[in-house]
Every structure is written in structure tokens, then in C-alpha cells.
Amino acid sequence: MDTHRTTPGPGPLLCALERIEQAPQADTLIDGLRKGVRALPLGPARDLLHGRPLGHPAHPLLVQVPIGTWLSATVLDLLPGRARRTAAPVLVGVGLAAAAPAAAAGWADWAELPPEQARTGLVHALANTAGVALYAASLYARARGRDLRGRALALAGLAAVGAGGALGGHLAFRQAAGANHAEQVGHRVGDGWHPLGPAAAFPVGRAALAQVDGVDVLVVREEDGTVRALADRCSHMGGPLSEGGIEDGCVRCPWHRSLFRLSDGWNVEGPATAPQPAFETRVVEGLAEARLIRVHRPHRHGRGPAAA
Ligand code: FES
């Protein structure tokens, strides 16, 4: 019996999330906010907020502290005894302090998202902002001796943060914000050497496009004849690196300006947190060939790894 024809489709929650993704009403506000966040003079701190040194976004890591402390505070709030009155406010306060760097990392990532993700991200941020406000009110109420009110506000805060967390999960896993968009390259490209094309056909110092096992590959021939090859789709959000500029041995992504080193794919500048899959190359009888680098070792003369 064919039961799949009658299996229910997406439920109301998923439909509501998809409506948020497609709702353009707040796009003007989003554009303005994103410009403002991008214009902040953060310098190297911006890459720290993105999590580039970690190799993945910092925001999911940083939110562990406020979520953990606030949840613990609520558990204490539900228990009898004096520990609740002394320890729970401390946990709420620690969570409020830790929410600041977590939010800063989230806003930095959010400013680089395409419209559908940015819409979900804005609602995620609004839910979490409501959570922060409720926890701040909870702390204030407790400080004034209004314990019951403080506990109720904390419970409401936890609900708001829970809704924000659910939206964050949708953003990360359904909409792939923060995911490595080049991760599949290692699964698609077979081991060994693959032909790229006649070396002389690649222009010197300019980006060109080739294919290896059906994967688009950016190819750059340097002045000394060395051929460089990286997976073409940017690890950040899939931007076409072959349409980017070549700068000082690196390629600049045309979408959000991540900078990848051509020799080993290291993400010298974010917002990309994952390096770009890179190939070692050789030229045999005029034919350029490429082999995917699967293991990196620490780079001796600069930041990031080098090919093994
Ligand atoms: S797609 Fe965002 S930096 Fe490349």
C-alpha cells in the first residue's frame, strides 16, 4: 500500500518559519542594520566574533553560557530553600553578562547573511533580546525583594530564549547559515591526480574556471608558471571565487570579501570561518593536473595551515 501519498506535509510550525524567511516587510530595516553593523570599526575583532580562529562560528559556542546559567537559575527557582534566593540571582546576572559577547558574535555573522537568512536571524535576535530584557527585569525584581515576580519573569525569559534558540537552529541547520558550504568537495573529488587543462590556457595572474570530478575549481597561473587551484564555491556562503579579485597570492570572494590563500586555501580574512578546499598541482607535458589536499600541517611562516 502506498502510504507516502497521504503522509502529512510540513506542519504549521515549519510553515510559519518559511513565511518568516519569505516576508520582505522588514527588509529596509534589515538593510540599514546590516550596513550599520558592517560599518563598525571592529578591525581584527570582527574575525574573532565570526570565529575564524576556531574554524567555525563563535556564536553557538558563546550562547552556551547564558542559556546554561539561565536554565540553571530556573531549576533553582523551582526548588525550595535558601539556595534559590542567593544562587539564582547570581546565575541570572552571569547569564546577562555573557549574553553581550554572544549577541555581538551573532550580529557580526548576521550582517553577512542573504535576505532569507537575515529575516529569520532578525526574529531570532528579537526573541533573544526579549529574553535578555525579561532576565534583566527578573534580576531587578529579585534585588527589590520581589522573589516571586523575579522567578516568573525568569520563566518568561527562558521561554523567549527557547523560541530564539529554535529559530537559531532553523537558521543554522535548515538555512545553513554558518555552515561550511565547501564541505562536500572532499566527498565528491576522488583521490589522485585529475586533469585541469593545458597550463598555457590559464591566464597569468587572473582567475579562471575548470572542473574536477564535476566540482568547479578556481585556477590561477602565476608568473613563474606555478598553477594554483582552489574549490570555486566559497566556504562561507558559496560565492564564486573565480569572479573574485587576485591579491597578493590570495583570492577575494566577490560576495562578502573573505580572503583565501591560493597556495593552501587558508582563510586569511573572514567572514569565512572554514578554509577553502585546495589542490596541489603539477604540470606534465604541458597539461595542468590537480590533486585535492586532504591533510594540512601548521604553516611555518604565516598564519594558518599549509599543505602536507
Ligand atoms: S560567500 Fe561570503 S565571503 Fe564568500
TrEMBL record:
The chain crosses the membrane at residues 86-108, 120-141, 153-173. GO terms for molecular function: 2 iron, 2 sulfur cluster binding; metal ion binding; monooxygenase activity; oxidoreductase activity, acting on paired donors, with incorporation or reduction of molecular oxygen. Residues 193-290 form the Rieske domain. SUPFAM superfamilies: ISP domain. Keywords: 2Fe-2S, Iron, Iron-sulfur, Membrane, Metal-binding, Transmembrane, Transmembrane helix. The keyword rRNA processing does not apply. Its cofactor is [2Fe-2S] cluster. Belongs to the bacterial ring-hydroxylating dioxygenase ferredoxin component family. This is (2Fe-2S)-binding protein.
